[in-house]
Write a structure and sequence with these properties.
The complex is a heterodimer of chains A (about 400) and B (about 425). By secondary structure, chain A is α/β, with parallel strands linked by helices. Chain A contains 15 helices and eleven strands. Chain A has two domains: about 80 residues, no CATH class; about 280 residues, Rossmann fold (3-Layer(aba) Sandwich), CATH 3.40.50.150. Chain A has a nine-stranded mixed beta sheet with strand order 5-4-3-6-7-11-8-10-9, sandwiched between helices. A two-stranded antiparallel ribbon of chain A has the order 1-2. By secondary structure, chain B is of the alpha+beta class. The chains are: A alpha/beta (about 400), B alpha+beta (about 425). The structure holds S-adenosylmethionine (SAM).
Chain lengths: ~400, ~425
């Protein structure tokens, strides 16, 4: 077959990559169609406004009569232009193989969360990080703390279920809105055919519990409780200062429309241990819970590079991480790092017992630091380039 | 037919003439030189058939996967050749029976009758044999994707590209084939710029056709499609000519299941090494994670050794965009490799091939609105119901069938030339 024409070598993406945020340029251009113009205050550039307009249109075409559609599209563009999150308008966000329902009062799943969840699943399924799956006697037991929409446990469930693996997944949250939505998300994805109704040996459930209350968390570590294979959490991690000061670190749309409970650790949770800041409080608590549950893998999302280093350093001193592998993952853990992205870091352990030795921690992927991964080494598994604790 | 005829049935006739005609067979074969099948092809068929028989006897002694596979591939040639030879020898027999001055008049009349039928049959069998020899495209059984791009000439060619896109989509719908729009990029997503015909100015689109065998059905659609019509924007009513280009690429099933080609197998010719692919995302500056709620999901992947690159931003999920981009990239690379292989085969026959050379980049089809006509230039095929063609109706089936038949004939011609070149080479040695 002949390639008759030269493919445009510079794709539109390529052309737009260096041209972000040219809103001043756009303001002077009066020929922009009105719907796009409505979106620009939020979307900032034409390319992403075009994409959002297409998604809004597709949504309206499915849900509204053709006669009313144009007016509805314009109204939705207006709302979006004023900063209402696209996912609250459309009601959904894709997450892995799922369609996650989104409603105000519950945090919208982020792309990075999707990336590391999929990467984790890839490690479990193709790299035996919890051992060969067919050698696991009971089921693969997973707990996701601070579950929100339930996106993480639902995707884990869907993915393992599809491979006919026995699996028991639990999602935990303190917010009734989140729990209700997580349950709705299970139903919705079963209806959509993305999840099959749980079969014998497969279960998924959502439970109300406050991470900071021993009495509510105890049920997960009761004596006789089976082994936990995986514990994940994307806890609130934004400091009150960053949240309330207008530094621009928190996007306006997030601050105005997403629930504070999901994003900012409350003041009354007490003081953080040495080496951590107040808004890192969830991590010390989650490590203590991990001590009780003793999962083979712990995966925690973190907010930025500084927090990642603080928490990773804290991990090296925490008994849970003793003789476990620690890794830092970037936004896209399965994309090759750029030339200027570090692939490992030496954490100065302030722990005197370690005799002042630093601990080398590998950094995976490309982007900003986004998660801390702690894994129990498995003797039989191929360790590859992964470094074991020294 | 004479009243006494019924007792002679055809099989009896055959039995009857057997001892009589044996001696003529050899001479008669040379006499039947009016075959349309090129001698080089016949030689090839005989060689393959001999190979088949060898394989069969090997397989009887001991089973081997490779031998069984090869035997399966060429069994249709052996079968077609046997049927063809059979028919040839019947014709020879009948001819010599008729040539015999002593044969019974009644018998001769039946023989004449049968000869006519047999000769008709031979034409069919010849075609069949040609078909069985025609190189089977190894991608034929795969699903496919069609890439649409407008040619130069602004909006009019973009509008027409959209018409082609809709044409194939409707065709698939009518045939009950599963499709999926991998990419649809209009110059105007707002839809404020539709043509009078309701077309959008399409810049690039990729349509995936998921049914196995779609590649075989659609591969002849690749090439330059030309439209001649008065654009809705043309005030003076002048006819414009513009073009759109189509690529038809093989699509690899996710796991390689259900197909003999497994692109995930590093041994496969179509394997793309992940580590040779660069993935780029829209890198957000500043804070990430929970701090922001970005909807940008664009991704670009580049195969470093070939420079082939695909960007994708159609879907809201970056993971999904990446999957789709990967699919397109893989198909393009496989296609490139195949082109390379074809070029090598072409070199072999180029010594012979001069007049018949296919010009690349030439238009394959014209859609003429004023004359209500669709012409396939390769097949020399015309049809009048343009509307039905553009709506993906049965008229389009006919045009496509004509192109496939053309392709088949061309493949057989190419094969003949290749065989002749090969056989000449051997003779020199
Ligand atoms: C950042 S959201 C994460 C949601 C979801 N896992 C995701 O990745 O999209 C944090 C979640 O933690 C919940 N949460 C906040 N404080 C909590 C607490 N003390 N105990 C349990 N859950 C809590 C919030 O309701 C919210 O749903």
């Amino acid at each position: 077959m002949s390639h008759l024409m030269i493919r445009p070598a510079t794709s539109r993406l390529l052309r737009t990559l260096p041209l972000r945020r040219h809103s001043s340029l756009l303001r002077t251009n009066s020929s922009i169609p009105p719907n796009l113009a409505l979106l620009l205050p939020t979307c900032k550039d034409l390319e992403s406004a075009r994409n959002e307009l297409r998604w809004l249109r597709e949504h309206v075409e499915k849900t509204t009569s053709p006669a009313k559609a144009p007016a509805v599209v314009t109204e939705l563009c207006r709302q979006r232009g004023q900063g209402v999150p696209l996912q609250y308008i459309l009601g959904t966000q894709p997450f892995g193989s799922l369609e996650i329902l989104c409603r105000p009062n519950v945090l919208i799943p982020r792309a990075a969360t999707e990336s590391y969840t999929n990467h984790l699943l890839d490690l479990i399924i193709s790299h035996n990080v919890i051992g060969p799956l067919d050698e696991i006697k009971e089921s693969v037991n997973v707990i996701d703390v601070c579950t929100g929409t339930g996106c993480i446990p639902l995707q884990v469930f869907a993915s393992l279920q599809r491979r006919n693996i026995m699996v028991d997944v639990k999602g935990v949250d303190v917010s009734p809105h989140a729990l209700e939505l997580a349950k709705d998300n299970l139903d919705h994805n079963v209806k959509q055919g993305n999840i099959a109704s749980p079969r014998e040996g497969q279960s998924i459930g959502f439970h109300k519990a406050d991470v900071f209350r021993d009495d509510e968390m105890d049920i997960f570590s009761k004596p006789g409780q089976k082994t936990w294979h995986i514990m994940t959490s994307n806890p609130p991690y934004i400091s009150e200062e960053v949240w309330s000061e207008d530094t621009g670190d928190v996007e306006l749309s997030v601050r105005q429309h997403e629930p504070r409970l999901a994003l900012v650790p409350e003041r009354n949770l007490g003081d953080a241990p040495e080496g951590l800041e107040r808004h890192d409080i969830f991590y010390s608590r989650l490590l203590d819970i991990a001590m009780e549950l003793n999962p083979r893998i712990l995966l925690l999302e973190i907010g930025d590079d500084a927090q990642a280093l603080r928490v990773a350093e804290y991990c090296t001193r925490h008994p849970f991480c003793k003789s476990r592998i620690i890794e830092l993952w970037r936004d896209c853990p399965d994309i090759k790092p750029d030339a200027n992205e570090q692939t490992e870091i030496i954490l100065e352990s302030s722990d005197k017992d370690q005799g002042g030795f630093g601990r080398k921690v590998p950094i995976k992927g490309s982007g900003q630091l986004r998660a801390i991964y702690v894994q129990q080494p498995i003797e039989s598994m191929d360790m590859g380039d992964r470094k074991i604790a020294c | 037919m004479p009243p006494s005829a019924p007792w002679i049935c055809r099989t009896c006739l055959r039995a009857l003439r057997q001892p009589l005609t044996r001696q003529f067979v050899r001479q008669a074969t040379t006499a039947a030189g009016d075959s349309k099948l090129a001698p080089a092809l016949l030689t090839r068929a005989q060689n393959l058939s001999a190979e088949y028989e060898n394989l069969q006897s090997t397989l009887e002694k001991s089973f081997s996967q490779a031998a069984a596979k090869r035997a399966g591939e060429i069994s249709s040639v052996a079968g077609a050749l046997a049927a063809y030879n059979n028919s040839r020898s019947s014709i020879d027999d009948l001819t010599s029976l008729l040539a015999d001055p002593d044969s019974d008049a009644e018998l001769a009349s039946i023989a004449r009758d049968e000869l006519a039928t047999e000769e008709e049959k031979l034409v069919m069998l010849e075609k069949e044999l040609g078909r069985s020899l025609a190189p089977k495209d190894q991608f034929d059984e795969l699903p496919c994707m069609i890439e649409f791009r407008p040619g130069p000439g602004g909006t009019e060619s973009r509008y027409f590209t959209d018409t082609l896109f809709n044409m194939y989509q409707s065709l698939c719908q009518r045939r009950g084939m599963r499709t999926n729009v991998l990419k649809y990029e209009s110059a105007d997503s707002a839809g404020d710029n539709k043509s009078a015909e309701g077309e959008l100015p399409l810049q690039e689109a990729v349509l995936e056709i998921l049914d196995p065998g779609a590649y075989g059905q659609f591969r002849t659609e690749a090439g330059m499609h030309r439209v001649q019509r008065v654009p809705s924007t043309e005030a003076k009513g002048r006819v414009h000519t513009s073009v759109a280009a189509l690529w038809v690429l093989p699509l690899f099933p996710e796991t390689g299941a259900g197909s003999s080609i497994d692109p995930d197998d590093p041994e496969s010719e179509f394997y793309v090494d992940q580590s040779e692919v660069k993935v780029e995302t829209m890198r957000a500056r500043g804070a990430g994670g929970q701090h922001v709620n970005k909807t940008e999901s664009a991704i670009r992947i580049t195969h470093i050794p070939t420079g082939e690159s695909v960007s994708m931003q159609d879907h809201r999920s970056q993971g999904r965009n990446r999957q789709e981009a990967w699919k397109i990239l893989r198909s393009r690379i496989a296609d490139k490799r195949r082109e390379q292989r074809e070029a090598e085969a072409a070199q072999l026959r180029d010594s012979v091939l001069t007049v018949n050379q296919i010009h690349r980049g030439e238009k394959i089809r014209t859609y003429n609105y004023n004359q209500d006509r669709c012409t396939d230039h390769r097949a020399g095929f015309d049809t009048n119901n343009l509307r039905d063609v553009l709506e993906g109706g049965e008229s389009l089936d006919k045009v496509m069938a004509a192109s496939r038949e053309w392709m088949l004939q061309r493949d057989i011609e190419m094969l003949t030339l290749e065989e002749e070149a090969k056989q000449k080479k051997q003779q020199k040695k």
